Amino acid sequence: MAFKINFSHVGALALVVALGVAAHAVQALPGGRTLAFALVTGGVLGLVLQRTRFCFYCHARDWFEDHNPRGLLAIVLALAVGVVGYTVVLGSWLPVPQPGKLPPDMHIGPVSWVLVAAGLSFGAGMVVSGSCISAHWYRLAEGSPVSPFALVGSALGFVLGFTTWKSLYSLSVADAPVVWLPAHLGYGGALLVQLGGLALVAAWLWRGFAREAAAASVPGGVPGLRTVWRNLWAGRWPYWVGGLAVGLIGAFAIVRMRPLGVTATLGSAARQWAQGQGWIPDRLEGLDGFAGCATAPQSTWFTPNALLLAGLVAGAFVAALASRQCAPRWPTWRDAVRGLSGGVLLGWGAMTGLGCTIGTLLSGGMAGALSGWVFGAAVFFAVGAGLRIQRLWPGGR
Fold first, then answer.
1. Domain membership flag for residue 222
2. Which positions ≥6 away from 12 have C-beta within 8 Å?
3. Is residue 342 a contact partner of residue 128, using CB atoms and an 8 Å limit?
4. Which one, of 236, 214, 178, lies nearest residue 51 by Cα?
5. In this structure, are residues 107 and 92 in contact, taking their beta carbons and an 8 Å threshold?
6. Of 59, 171, 300, 323, which is most buried with the most CB atoms under 10 A?
7. Range of 174's domain?
8. For residue 224, is it within any domain?
9. Is the Cβ–Cβ distance between 45 and 312 less than 8 Å?
10. Residue 386 forms part of a structural domain
């Protein structure tokens, strides 16, 4: 039998080795262990996101258009796993939660109409650009022609958000309540309320689908190792794998670094550039006092969030290369317009909401922040409305 070399797998393996070498090298820097952890965590996250096609917009679209609940159920699973993990970790750090005393670095933000507006903007940006920001990062590794423009547009949206922040802060954000559920319900009560709410959502999504799924399932024997390896790089991994893995990664990450977020580095770069142009002041009232995806200018780009993003793109590229799903093409004007316009909406929403679907919804919801759940509800409402408008718009599909 002739031995055939799969160059895609060889290239992916070389990238894994390079990622390991980079993780070893950054350990020599100040805070090197945390930086290496962030790089490796990002690599695993990118691999999982790409192989499971974990995308908040795509999962929501599958439900709104085809009534396929599996993607949204994966998000519910990620939140449920993360809520349990966060409760265990935060309970060891802050045994007695009290009103007015928040756990450090957790993504717990103010709740007001400004947060709702941010979620609506972010959801609209998802519809226009075709992805959330986290998915644009991993689709960048797949060669998406829209994602580079969407990320540039997101940076511009951050700049726009910085210019509107002072007015919004004075109007509403400054006096808005910052609600951490465990401080009002205790860890047990908050866990019960959140898991109960997620269970109700899961039951509602699953109604009428269980029988179809059971009828479609075909029992089979235990696959061999060669079949298992081939299946790892063919098609996509099951939805539930993405939900479980993202939830575990989110809970595990806070043990060594800040909560997961994919916009802090992008926002910091945008803020530093805009300040250099004199477009925004050096000090933005109240912004740097809130927890979330911090956007302060950086003196170095060797930060945990920057290396998390680098690892995410690298891990996604490894997965896309091994699965032969890296298929770049030259962008069209339509790709550029979609990406830039949708990105501006994404960036303004992420800046004003102090994070995106990863930072505010996922990390915030896992921590028991009411802001995370409010932001998520606004995002999914906007996606549903946007898809309906898109169907009615001539040439919208």
1. no
2. 318, 319, 321, 322
3. yes
4. 236
5. no
6. 59
7. 7-209+233-391
8. no
9. yes
10. yes
* Number of domains comprising the chain: 1
Token pair belonging to 321: 């290369």
The stretch 191-212 carries a mean pLDDT of: 85
Residue 178: what are its φ and ψ, rounded to 5°? Answer: -105, 105
Tens of pLDDT, residue by residue over 289-332, are 776 666 776 667 788 888 999 999 999 988 888 888 778 889 99
The CA distance from 389 to 109, in Å, is 30
Which residues partner with 98 through β-bridges? 101
**8 A C-beta contact, residue 293 and residue 263:** yes
Continuous H helices in the chain: 7-26, 32-52, 56-66, 70-93, 113-129, 133-142, 147-171, 181-206, 210-216, 225-232, 239-256, 264-276, 304-322, 333-352, 364-367, 370-392
| Positive or negative torsion for Cα 49, 52, 57, 60 | negative
Instruction: Please state whether the predicted TM-score (pTM) of the whole model is above 0.90.
Output: no
Whole-number Å distance between alpha carbons of 120 and 140: 24
C-beta separation of 242 from 48 below 8 A: yes
User: In Å, how far are 222, 246, 291 from 370, measured between CA atoms?
Assistant: 44, 20, 13
In a domain, 11, yes or no: yes
Q: Quote the radius of gyration of the chain (alpha carbons, Å).
A: 21
